[in-house]
Amino acid sequence: MSTGRAPAGAARRGRDRRAQVLLPTPGRDRFTDPSTAPRVAVVGGGIAGLAAATGLAERGVHITLYEKESALGGRLAGWPVELADGSTATMSRGFHAFFRQYYNLRGLLRRADSGLTSLTGLPDYPLRHSSGLSDSFARVPRTPPWSALGFVALSPTFGWRDLARMDPVAALPLLDVRVPEVYERLDSTSAWDFLAAIRFPEAAHHLAFEVFSRSFFADPRELSAAELALMFHIYFLGSSEGLLFDVPDEPFPQALWEPLGRYLTGHGARLLTGTPVGRVEPLPGGDLEVRTDGAPPERYDAVVLALDTGGLRGVVERSPRLCDASWRARIGGLRNAPPFLVSRLWLDRPVRAERAGFLGTSGYGPLDNVSVLERWEGEAARWAARTGGSVLELHAYAVDPAADRDAEQGRLLAELYRVYPETRDAKIVDARHEWRADCPLFPVGGYQDRPTVRTPDPAVTVAGDLVRTGLPVALMERAATSGFLASNALLERWGVRGQTLWTVPRKGRSGLLRAIAGVGGGRG
Q1: Are 12 and 19 in contact (CB under 8 A)?
Q2: What are the b/e assignments for 375-384, b being 16+ CB within 10 Å?
Q3: What is the pTM of this model?
Q4: What is the pLDDT of residues 84-127, one digit of tens each?
Q5: Tens of pLDDT, residues 300-332
Q6: What does each C-alpha distance from 507 to 151, 229, 294 come to in angstroms?
Q7: Residue 312: enclosing H or E segment and its boundaries?
Q8: Alpha-carbon span 111 to 107, nearest angstrom
Q9: Quick one: which of 56, 137, 358, 441 has the most CB atoms within 10 Å?
Q10: Where are the alpha helices (DSSP H) in 401-454?
Q11: Distances (CA, A) of 227 to 230, 233, 243, 351, 471
C-alpha cells in the first residue's frame, strides 16, 4: 500500500484537508467467477474481524467469520439483560467515543449506514479534577497548532507560571510526531516519566494526558510514551478534526453490528457466532485447516486472526505448526492490560439536567469517567422517560488485579456520590458490574515484539488494536485499519485491488513546529 494523492472523485474522509490517503496495490476490481474465488476464514467478530471480512467479501472472496461469543462486536458487543423492574435492557462493556478522525472505522460503519445516522455528536468532552479544576474542548479550535494553543489558553490547569516551569526541550518530540519513528525515539520511556521530564503542571498532567493514557486501560507508569505522543498527535497537533466525538444513538448491537452483519451476509459471508476456534493447522500445499469444537475441520486458502490478546495467544499456542517458532514466541509474550470495571446503574430519579452525557474524571479514586446514557442512547432514554430515573455508567481502568472486586465496586459508587451528589438520595433499581482484562498492554520497550499484519506465512494475517501498523492510528481506529490492511495483504497476493484507507498525517503538520523540533532535538 502506498501513500499518495487520492484518485479523482475519491471521497475525502472528514473535514481535514490534510488527511492522508493510503492507496492499495493496483489490481483487478474483484473475483468475478465464484468457482475460482478463494475461501478465507476470519477468526474474531470484533471491529478488526468485521473490517477484514468486509474488505474481502466486497471483492468476491468466500468468507466464513468465526466468533466465540453469541453476537458480533467483540469488545463492543452487547447482550440482553432483564432488570429488577421486569424491563429488558442491553448491557455492554460501556462507553466508546467515535472520534471524527476514525476515518476507516467510520468508513466500515458507512457500509450499513451511509449517512452515519446511528451516530450522534456530544457537545463537549469535559474533564474534571477533584481539586475543582475542569477543562472543556467545546470552544477549543480544531485546526493545529491553534488547537493545542487554544487548549492551553482556555484551560484553568495551565498558568503562565506553570508554562514557564516546563522544559521545552523535553517537550519537543510532541511537536513533530512521525510514525513509526516516534517508537524509535520514545518507546523505551514510560508515559509517566516522559510527562515528568516535561514538568507538566500536575492538574494538567492528570486532565490533559492521563485521561488519554488510561484510555489504553493502563497505568501511565507502564505505558509506552510513544503511544501517549501518538495520541497527542492524533487529537491535537496532527489533525484538525478536534477532540469532539460521536456516540451510537442505540446500544451497539442494534445501532452498529446487526446492520453490518446483514450487510456481510448480503455479500455472501457466513457468520458463525458462538463458535470458538480451537486451532489453525497449516496443510501441505499452503492451505490452512480451521478446527472448532464439535464440528468437522474446514479448509481455507487463507486465515485472518482478528482476536484480542488472550484469544490470539490461545489459538497460536494450540497451533504449534503455525508460521514459525520465532513468531509464535513473540505472540506468546504479549501481555494484557490490567483489569477494568464497568458499573451500570439504573436509578429511580434523574441526575441534574445540566450533567454532561460524558465526563472524564481524575483524582476521584478509581473513577475514570461517568456517562449519563439517556443523554444520547435511545434505549436508556426510553427507560428514563418511563420511570423518571437515570441510567449511569461508571468506568474504572487499570484496577489492581489483587483488588477486592466488591470493595472496588463500592468505591466507584462512593466517588459517583462525590462527583454527582444528587445521586446519594437515589435508589438503585438495578446494577450490573462487568469486570474484564482483555485489552492489549503497550508496555515500555514492547513495540518491536508486537505482531504486524503480515506474518511469516503469506496466507496468515493478523488484525486488531494490538497490531503494529506503522500508521498514526490507535484504539478502535487501529482495529479497523488493521482489519482492512489484513484483507488488502491477502487481496494483493491474488492480484485484486484492496481498500483505500485514510489516516491523519504521518508527521507534524506545522512546518514551523517541525523545524523547531528538528533543531532542538532531532526527528521523532
Answers
A1: yes
A2: bbbbbbbebb
A3: 0.93
A4: 999 999 999 999 999 999 999 999 999 999 999 999 999 888 88
A5: 999 999 999 999 999 999 999 999 999 999 999
A6: 21, 12, 50
A7: helix 309-317
A8: 7
A9: 56
A10: 405-419
A11: 5, 10, 17, 36, 12
